[in-house]
TrEMBL record:
Disordered: annotated segments: 1-41
This protein's UniProt keywords: Membrane, Transmembrane, Transmembrane helix
Residue ranges of the TM segments: 57-77, 83-99, 106-125
Protein's UniProt name: Uncharacterized protein
Ranges of compositional bias, category Low complexity: 15-41
Length: 127
């Protein structure tokens, strides 16, 4: 009777040990590593697109407005010394929060800043 009880407790311990690790990386196949390309931890564009599609519409609109505001601050920053001083702190703050949000969102904001600065210097933007 003690052997049967011991065997059952060993089996229960094995089940308890593996039950919590099903989704962790390396123990159950692809469940914990979905979207990771290679060793640098970068996500594939397909996974990023899926994450964007799972978000609700209002979150996507907020992200677009966020990028628009960052671009507006970039146009303000290249207009002269005083506008640059006004735009510096909000622009750095927006880029910091984009960095903390995700790497892809930060890169989108940097691309928006770069494109806006180039368009402003070329005289394509009305502001």
């Amino acid at each position: 009777m003690s052997e049967l009880g011991g065997g059952e407790s060993d089996r229960n311990a094995e089940t308890a040990d593996t039950a919590g690790t099903t989704g962790t990386a390396g123990t159950a196949g692809t469940a914990g590593t979905a979207g990771v390309d290679g060793s640098d931890g970068a996500r594939s564009p397909l996974v990023l697109l899926e994450e964007f599609r799972r978000r609700n519409a209002s979150a996507a609109v907020v992200d677009v407005l966020y990028v628009f505001t960052t671009a507006f601050l970039a146009t303000l920053a290249v207009r002269g010394t005083r506008p640059a001083m006004i735009a510096a702190l909000p622009l750095v703050t927006f880029l910091y929060f984009a960095w903390k949000s995700s790497r892809a969102f930060f890169l989108v904001n940097l691309a928006a800043v770069g494109a806006t600065v180039a368009a402003t210097e070329a005289g394509l933007l009305p502001l």
